Amino acid sequence: MIESAASKGGSGPDSTILRLGGGAVGFNWLPVFAAQRHGIFARRGLQLEIKRLGTVDKATAAVKSGELDLAITPPEGAIRDCVGGGSLRIIAGNVNRLPLSLIAKPRFRRVEDLRGAKLGTSSLTEGTALYTMEVLRRHGLNHPGDYEFAVVGVHPARWKALQEGTIDAAVQLIPLNFVAVDAGYANLAEVTDYIPEIVFTALIADQAWAQGHRSQVVAFLRGLIEGTLWVYDPANDAALLALTTEITQAQGQYASQSLDYMREKSVFAHDLSIPEAAFAKSIELMQKAGLADTKLMAGARAVLDDSYRSAAAGPG
After folding, report:
1. Which of the listed residues 94, 110, 236, 245 has the most CB atoms within 10 Å of its CB?
2. Model confidence pTM above 0.70
């Protein structure tokens, strides 16, 4: 599905089209849609085409292939690509605090009860699987052996699989975690209690493409910073609640709960920066999951190119 600024926020004859995508386009995209809907990108001569790929692996691959210009997605795929000599780079942060809960069928009362269970994930090598492993590891459960994963997709697909009974539990993004609890499912853990800071989602780009479109990338990031500050401003709550409901398809109280959670946890990086501790935790969990060898550990930071974000965060 493509949503363009031509119908959502306006465009002009001289607009530059940026193709932006992700596995899912959910709550963590709130600043993007705020900036798009309120003309922030259009004022900078940008028009967005937004594509949902269905899985985080596909989003990373789409930037690699040139199908997308930019993706908002977990960082692990770009890290592996860069260390392997590839051209993917992380150019900015998006979410450094996990707005996730471990949601399970009602019969599970403790994390320890998940021994032998089937847990849903969007990927075995990026994002949710790594967070799930860390939470369960703290309760004496290790993968493989003590439980299994089913790759069912991003958060709407995980919620559907849980309702259909094809999985026993999965980490769930706001507001579907709130929806699940009200529907009688168990919230076994808040993932942020186990992982206070990590690169959950970031902006990735192909290095050569970004260098050739530097002014547009900086303009996009400057607009995204403005959109992020917009969602933190309580003065915008009426419009923000409506936008949250539209993006997440969660009605009434769930949109409000999501915004309260977002502000309490400072979910979005105000200036799109990636703290050192957050990046280090991402590498640590990759290592624990057997996805980071000595070469990756030594070379992972080469994936970070902060020059675009720094320029966007500066005066101008």
Report:
1. 94
2. yes
